[in-house]
Amino acid sequence: DYSKKIVSKNINNASAEELRKVYGIGPALSGRIVQERERLGGYVDMMQVRAVYGLTDSTITKLKEHFFIKNSKQVKIALNTATKDQLLSIPYFNDYLVDELIKERTLRDGFDSWEKVMLTSRFPEEKLSLIQLYLTLD
Q1: Residues 41, 122, 28, 74: what is their CA dihedral angle, to the nearest 10 degrees?
Q2: How far apart are CA 89 and CA 64, in angstroms?
Q3: Given this model, what pLDDT does residue 2 score?
Q4: CB of 12 within 8 A of CB of 37?
Q5: How far is the C-alpha of 88 from the C-alpha of 67, rounded, in Å?
Q6: What is the pLDDT of residue 6?
Q7: Which of 126, 77, 123, 85 shows the shortest CA–CA distance to 104?
Q8: What gap in Å lies between CA 29 and CA 33, rounded to an integer?
Q9: pLDDT at residue 138, rounded to an integer
Q10: Which of 11, 91, 122, 124 has the fewest beta carbons closer than 10 A?
Q11: Residue 76: helix, strand or coil by DSSP?
Q12: Strand 9-10 versus strand 67-68 pairing type
């Protein structure tokens, strides 16, 4: 019914039931979207929603018609001065990677480019654009 007005809502406040109202999203996908949101402590960019397994481009397009991400005041962490605990707060990092980043940062007197950051052992290159939502080299 085309007379229905689309009401847009912050995806960080959406229930699994609300997500299922989007064409192409069933119980499994809505569950994964909610699970990933909880793991991340909330989405800061639609790019993170796009990374949920099983979402197609057309479903993402429909999702964006119904949901938005409130311009989050995500404070970026400065990689070159961050503490271990600050780095561990980044959802895509684990103990091993944080220890390696700190080791590399110390050896290099800080990182001056993302290319150098990506040389760190086991750095998840495919997640760089997501990691950059949380980190800065300044």
Answers
A1: 20
A2: 27
A3: 47
A4: yes
A5: 29
A6: 64
A7: 123
A8: 6
A9: 85
A10: 122
A11: coil
A12: parallel
Tokens found for residue 37 = 């949101």
Locate 138 and state its tokens: 């300044």
- Whether the CB-CB separation of 65 and 6 falls below 8 Å is answered with yes
Q: Are 125 and 116 in contact (CB under 8 A)?
A: no
3 state DSSP class of 66: helix
Q: How many residues does this entry show for the chain?
A: 138
Residue type, 108: R
Would you state the structure tokens that stand for residue 7, as one six-digit string? 């009401």
Q: How is residue 85 written in tokens? A: 């605990």
The token pair that represents 68 in the structure block:
């938005």
Closest CA relative to residue 121, chosen from 104, 106, 108, 109? 104
Closest CA to 96 of 75, 124, 76, 116: 124
